[in-house]
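Thread: "does anyone have the structure for this chain?"

Original post by V.I.:
We have the sequence but no experimental structure in hand. Need at least a predicted one for the grant figures.
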Amino acid sequence: MVKTLFDKVWDAHLVEQMDNGPSILYIDKHLIHEVTSPQAFQELEDRGIELFRPDQVVATADHNTPTLDQDKPVKDPLSKKQLQQLTDNCHKHGITLYGLGHEYNGIVHVMAPELGITQPGMTMVCGDSHTSTHGAFGSIAFGIGTSQVAQVFASQSLLLTKPKTMRITVNGTLGKGVLPKDVILYIIAQIGTNAGTGYFCEYAGDVFAQMSMEGRMTVCNMSIEMGARGGMIAPDQTTFEYVQGRPYAPKGEAWEEKLTHWKTLPTDADAIFDKEYFFDAKDIAPMVTYGTNPGMGVKIGANIPESEDASFAKSLRYMGLTPGQSLLNHPIDYVFIGSCTNSRIEDFRVAANAVKGRQKAAHVVAWLVPGSKQVEAQIEQEGLKTIFEAAGFKLRQPGCSACLAMNEDKVPEGAYCVSTSNRNFEGRQGQGARTLLASPLVAAISAIEGKISTVDAYLN
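Reply from O.Q.:
Generated one for you, tokens below.
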């Protein structure tokens, strides 16, 4: 029987299929952080239940951690309380914690892959919607709610309705300056933010096969923004080379056994999907969003479309923009390069290459927030920090930061921020803040120019 990648991983983890009902799915890895875990731990406590598989849980601190002075006591009382609760709960239950200041600390969806915790063929969950990031390795990875976090704590399993399958194929070769972020923003702009509702999406074709693992993670990260439960890319040699040798990766004979299994995971040739989309790489260009959901995006230089939809008009009023307007040369105030979408070393290399020898516009505040302590160290070791500081950019410490404004990294009301994060909802980066989603290249260039600009002059 031919199967999709999704079906192969799902079937291997199926504990029980209820008659005409949900499934019980075993979960290999459970990632937790300080925001969505305290209530779940409390539920275990209230019900007198032991944590079933502490060895399968890994914790980090990331969401509302400060990105300055991390070696000093945390000032915000809520953040301080949540961090202490995480520490206490992990200590009590024997969970591995990479807390604030640890050399492996970072955004949960950055540090887990770089440590080799994320591997092909796994089922992975986290109390965070962008857990879909890990699907880049050929794993079934998705976000869960707090009550489900408690369910996994107690049973290492979840009661789920099996999603339908969708495949998005992009063939051809991307143009210069077109990054993975542009690919996923283009796809969402074409099919909408609800196209994936009820589906698990597999990305296939030349474009994804040619992407680095960092690029694949960017794409899978934003699967949730088109409504999908998660996104996946079949593991290949690029995947295997990325995982091999990392701290949590299998070693010796165990590696060879895993590798043999991983090579069987890609979708069979005649497998059928419930829904398919096809795109040509030559149609994709550097993108920027203009509205308050990730599907409201256009190629840089294109005009904002017309629409009589009331929510569309409300979105443009919030953004201070009008139908027919082009965002090319639109002034900006802030730039944020970071988040679980674009805070890996590859993203900072792209940005540094664009800004080297240049100076950011005087009125622009430019924040660079690495996704982990390891990325922070690489930025310094590779000399990128020197390039950024000479250009006037501010390098901060790891954390979710201005992606969701849970700490002090907030964009002021009415200010425009070119952001490499994943959401441009009203108030996402601060009350009244106006978010323009883009790639690290577009963000870096916009900081230099002080406005939304094309990438052509910066390519070398």
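V.I.: this helps a lot. The mean pLDDT is 96.
O.Q.: and The radius of gyration is 21 Å.
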